[in-house]
Amino acid sequence: MTIVELQDVRKVYPLGKVEVEAVKGVSFCIEKGDFVSIAGPSGSGKTTILNMIGCVDRPTKGTVSIAGTPTKDLKDAALTTLRHETLGFIFQSFNLIPVLNVRENIEFPLLLGRERVPKKEREQWIDYLIEEVGLSQWSKHKSNELSGGQRQRVAIARALVTKPEIVLADEPTANLDSHTGEQILELMKKINREMQTTFIFSTHDAKIVGLADHIIRLRDGLIIENVRNGTDAAALCADLAGESVIENSPVQSARS
Amino acid sequence: MEIIKLALRNLARQKKRTFLLGSAIAFGIMIVTVINGFAGAFVDNISENFANLAAGHVFIQGVEKSASGKESDIIRDDALLMQAVKDANIPSKYISKRSSAQASLIFAGHNAQLKVDGVDFSKETFLPERLMFIKGGLEGMKQRDGIIISEPIAKRLNVQPGDRVLVQLRTLTGQQNVGEFSIAGITVDAGIFGSMSGYANKTYMNELLALGPEDYQLLGIYLPSLKGTDAYGKALYEKVKAVAPVFDRDAAKNDQNFIRSFMNQGKTETWTGIKYRVFTLNDMLAQVKQIADALDTASLIILLVLFVIIMVGITNTFRIILYERIREIGTMRSIGMQRGEVRNLFLFEAGFLALGGAVFGLVLAFIVMAAIGGISFSMNSPVFIILKNGHMTFKVDAARMLLNVLIVAALTEFAAFFPSRNAARLDPAVALRTVK
Ligand SMILES: Nc1ncnc2c1ncn2[C@@H]1O[C@H](COP(=O)(O)OP(=O)(O)O)[C@@H](O)[C@H]1O
Ligand SMILES: [Mg+2]
């Protein structure tokens, strides 16, 4: 089942008087429950694409659909609700709320929005997540008392607390040493398997790309490789987007 | 709830900055509260001191008009009036009946002008309690021509107790009259009003004024407190009006200067017998009230001016806060915080800052007022009239205090509003990307 679909997505940033085309027409689909890597060197457009999937940014052209909802015409409030209910975020520099402790950081998204999880249920769920990311001893600590790896574990728990269908992680290991980075990625993979949550992470580190079921490789705002479990993944969207997309697909143009 | 918790913790983040801003707010509140407190007590203290000097809160004056058109103050038979006082159910602490005149005292080539009140010392037992003698005392008043004067007048005349001074005044009918007083006692200077008064025996004053021994000029009713002044004044007016001719209070009601217009009513009227004029301390002190109101208005202007400056600081600080927390704002927006919630978070911070500052300011104000109130002024201080027992007192109106706090809170919110709205309107992608 397709959970994320990008159709001929372009993003142009105004930069003074000139324009920078960060994403130059990208189409792909992501299956629910996959562990997806968006790989590519710095400046290739990874953050821009993740921001558009994450509904924090809008494409200049093309459409992005999340869990079957086209996001194009949604107003800010609706996009915020979509982010809150369907998406989880993990950032390169952790981005914990500094005045909140570990437990409060994890709980924070649950206290936003209209829906209220009963307190007892909430407590149990947070206990479970803290246990899951291995921070039981640290729940009362503020983020400035934690190591980078620990902070990212808090961020993972926070991203999962609303039980989102998709978790987005923009270079989650870039600020960590390689050993810690691998542990973080393995934790993400474990949760992906246990909870069937779709993970989409970006990286420029070739070593961790290998953990993914589905790899979308970028260069200069174009897809140069789109492989899922060893086979070409461009066909994933075929039934949805039609022939033309595939013919114009950067995958083919990159290979030709 | 979560937003309130975050707002409070965010304020605690930069303690020094929060403290400075809060102190600025506190300072504004403190100044205004002290001024309000002063203005509040100002009227009360002047009224109280004045009531003591004039020996009453509510007064009845009797006025006769001669064939030649001359007005003279006199109350002959007061049975009617005393019945009216009774009927009006006035809880008087005491009643004074005085005859007074503007007189000049002359001694060895020096002279001094003063108002001499003829007092029945056997009845006005409260008066001696308030007189603070420097020299001589009440003993001397046993002499029928005894007089008590204040220190500045005694100095002017260069007299001592026992000295005999010449007095010059006009009788009720306007004749020049001359007599003699014997200085019985010299009291401390009681301020602007008090120092110009002297006290003599009523029987002797009546003689000098050519009044009958039982006559007098002004009936003063001293109430247990200032509070009932207007109400009892009105009640008494109605009662007297029902049994005797009175000057029409309603006719003067709309005049800018009520008391002057009311006091001059007799000039254009003719009547026979005695016509009564019922008036109160508040009528006489209307201008004092105006001064206090002006002080209150001034305090409001001070608050606003101070706050315009403080608001610039608040706006700038919140701009800085926005910049400092830009990534945090981006994060919160990403994980599902709505624009309005981001704005409210900032506004709550501003609100708590204002309330904290205001409470701090009120505490400071009460400390300052207690400190000033602790200073003991000498009784001959020129500010005596605004003092209570030699101390400055303050009376802060709770509603006024609340109003000041609300104004401060509203202005703080206003100052924080635009930065807060800008924070809410930040594009989350831009906020997340910004590196400081
Ligand atoms: N706000 C922006 N304004 C102008 N150019 C931008 C902006 N954001 C990104 N870019 C440019 O777009 C391209 C892709 O950026 P980005 O998506 O951040 O790549 P990555 O995350 O892979 O490093 C880069 O050339 C970058 O310089
Ligand atoms: Mg990036």
Fold and architecture overview:
The complex is a heterodimer of chains A (256) and B (436). Chain A has one domain: P-loop containing nucleotide triphosphate hydrolases (Rossmann fold, 3-Layer(aba) Sandwich). In chain A, 35% of the residues lie in helices and 28% in strands. Chain A is an alpha/beta fold. In chain A, the strands form two sheets. Chain A has a seven-stranded mixed sheet, with helices on both faces. The relative contact order of chain A is 0.20. In chain A, strand 7 (166-170), helix 6 and strand 8 (198-203) form a beta-alpha-beta unit. In chain A, helix 5 (148-160) packs parallel to helix 6 (178-195). Chain B is α+β, with helices and mostly antiparallel strands and 436 residues long. Chain B folds into two domains: 2-49 and 287-433, no CATH class; 96-214, Beta Barrel (Cathepsin D, subunit A, domain 1). Chain B has 16 helices and eleven strands. Chain B has a six-stranded mixed beta barrel with strand order 3-4-9-6-8-7. In chain B, strand 3 (94-107) and strand 4 form a beta hairpin. In chain B, helix 2 crosses helix 14 (339-374). Chain B is elongated. The mean pLDDT of chain B is 90. Bound molecules: adenosine-5'-diphosphate and magnesium ion. Residues 46-47, 170-171 of chain A line the site of magnesium ion (MG).
Task: Write a brief caption for the model.
The complex is a heterodimer of chains A (256) and B (436). With 256 residues, chain A is α/β, with parallel strands linked by helices.
